[in-house]
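FAQ

Q: What does a record look like?
A: Structure on top, sequence underneath. For example:
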């Protein structure tokens, strides 16, 4: 897909990988980027960066775990632009502090709702809007943690493993809807989620790894996302971006 003049939605756009992807889409010529996040104030910075790079920025305070909120965002996108070409299902949540199983059941439910429910619903609800203009591309953010047991983050890695299998199961959508669904699995990336994995610091269980590898930047992951968008041969691809 040629990104020029396309309309995109990026969830979790207030910071980190979502912010980097939104800015990179704008720099590559996207017409508009809808910026979805629950952090209304933080969206202002991303919106300014998107506009500086030449695209229209639409701030959308959206809870991706809510069917009603997702429908409202997509309806607004349809009303504004009459199309949706790109969706990056990126919003995510980890255990934070304390580790599993010390977190509350409510926190566990929130992780499942945002990381998995949000990806599935976002994909399903976007299909009709994409199909009516000939199709589109969806990229889901999973994690390198999807492939290994991680006891302190048991709920997080479970949701990310599920995202991988969901993406693979979406392969037929390329034929039925003209929508390619792919997945990026970041290694350890310099984001707010990592920095606050131990509450107000990097979690003790993560610190040895944090100190021993070259951390990826959000832009490293955004680059992989844009490659999955741009390459029309990529269908249900699971791309890992690994630390060195």
């Amino acid at each position: 897909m040629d990104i020029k003049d396309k309309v995109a939605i990026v969830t979790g756009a207030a910071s980190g990988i979502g912010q980097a992807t939104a800015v990179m889409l704008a720099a590559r010529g996207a017409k508009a980027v809808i910026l979805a996040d629950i952090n209304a104030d933080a969206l202002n910075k991303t919106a300014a960066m998107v506009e500086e790079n030449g695209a229209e920025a639409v701030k959308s305070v959206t809870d991706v775990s809510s069917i009603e909120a997702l429908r409202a965002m997509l309806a607004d996108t349809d009303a504004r632009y009459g199309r949706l070409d790109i969706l990056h299902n990126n919003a995510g949540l980890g255990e934070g502090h304390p580790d599993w199983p010390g977190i509350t059941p409510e926190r566990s439910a929130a992780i499942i709702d945002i990381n998995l429910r949000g990806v599935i619903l976002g994909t399903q609800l976007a299909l009709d809007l994409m199909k009516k203009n000939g199709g589109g591309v969806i990229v889901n953010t999973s994690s390198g943690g999807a492939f290994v047991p991680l006891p302190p983050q048991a709920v997080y890695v479970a949701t990310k493993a599920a995202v991988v299998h969901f993406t693979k199961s979406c392969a037929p959508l390329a034929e039925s809807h003209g929508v390619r669904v792919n997945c990026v699995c970041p290694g350890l990336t310099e984001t707010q989620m990592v920095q606050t994995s131990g509450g107000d610091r990097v979690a003790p269980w993560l610190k040895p790894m944090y100190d021993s590898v070259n951390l990826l930047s959000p832009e490293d992951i955004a680059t992989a996302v844009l490659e999955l968008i741009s390459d029309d041969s990529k269908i249900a691809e699971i791309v890992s971006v690994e630390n060195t």
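Q: Is there anything notable about this one?
A: DSSP finds nine helices and seven strands in the chain.
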